[in-house]
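Obj: model holo form, ligand = NAP.
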Amino acid sequence: MQTSLRRSGQQLLLDRSPALKSIYSFSATGYGIDQHRHASTIAVKGSGHLIRKGTGGRSSVSGIVATVFGATGFLGRYVVQQLAKMGSQVLVPFRGSEDSHRHLKLMGDLGQIVPMKYNPRDENSIKAVMAKANVVLNLIGREYETRNFSFEEVNHGMAEQLALIAKEHGGIIRFIQMSCLGASSSSPSRMLRAKAAAEEAILREFPEATVMRPATLIGTEDRILNRWASFAKKWSFLPLMGDGSTKIQPVYVVDVAAAIISSLKDDGTSMGKIYELGGPDVYTMHELAELMYETIREWPRYVKVPFPIAKAMASPRELLLKKVPFPLPNPEIFNLDHINALTVDTVVSENALTFSDLGIAPHKLKGYPTEYLISYRKGGPSFGSTVSERVTGSEF
Ligand SMILES: NC(=O)c1ccc[n+]([C@@H]2O[C@H](COP(=O)([O-])OP(=O)(O)OC[C@H]3O[C@@H](n4cnc5c(N)ncnc54)[C@H](OP(=O)(O)O)[C@@H]3O)[C@@H](O)[C@H]2O)c1
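Output (holo structure tokens):
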């Protein structure tokens, strides 16, 4: 009985969604269409109209019941905080330990943040975490591959699956997909190509979805300035890929979370659109590193690593990843895919919809958004002086 139900479920999904054939062709990774994960029997129902109560604060009811996939990550904490602050209920699917979502619980009123264990490869569990929602945010993404998860599965396959399930749900009024600035089918980075494929699939399956393409995120838990600062402290220099002239447009993580909220609050104008979210200033990698050094009050020392050498240094991990019988360390500074991405500039395109179309003025990075770096000052937060102070000091 169970088997026949499962088969008919699979057939139904195949009939409805020919696209599944293409994404789930990763059968080598146990991600094939023949897996029983498509045999969902959970009834999914939308929750109908939004019911709003209160003045809009934490103890109000915004009417939004949002399932935030990827809430346990860096951006997730700011998105959950802003959703909870306006009185939304946030369902937090998590796959790791109970610790992965602990910090989110206090962001909302009692019972407003609901962690739910799920398995991203089990369709039933995805349906269960989406069942009561009327909004779905997909913040799942990863900038390196592991033995278990390829770029394509995490950044494309999962996103497409969420869009399909959200459509089938029938009551999801908003779907927001976090992509990346620079996502393109012709990008030198596999992750950015997978993100572009995800955008296309999502807008095909759920045309009312909104796609956000943030630039490199900066904030207390970021994975660029923190890594640079700890590398510079440990080795007394910082490797600059290429000659450090690649342009990027880093953005404050809180602004990106605010853009998501603003899009959810609008009258539907952001539905079906793609936004490129870059900060107010374009930096070369070298200029951004200068900002880091200035804030941690260390004398800047660089080693320029030409791209071919950087790629050669980063390649062994990728070559060995699936060949050795044990997990390899995750790449930090020398991430091959990231090095590939850095071979081209990544800035907001000229005619793109941006923060201003969502009514937001992004913060400059210098100052509060990068203040967390003072924890890297060797003699405590008040230690030392900036480079400009030192130069001025020696002149007198
Ligand atoms: N950080 C940036 O600079 C940046 C820039 C542009 C765009 N983005 C995009 O913005 C989104 C959020 O970024 P972030 O910095 O918050 O990422 P993050 O800190 O790495 O968090 C990623 C989230 O995705 C989940 N995830 C990763 N692999 C998964 C898998 N195999 N199965 C299920 N869940 C998985 C993680 O869950 P676990 O906690 O269980 O691992 C985590 O909740 C991502 O889509 C990212 O591509 C980020």
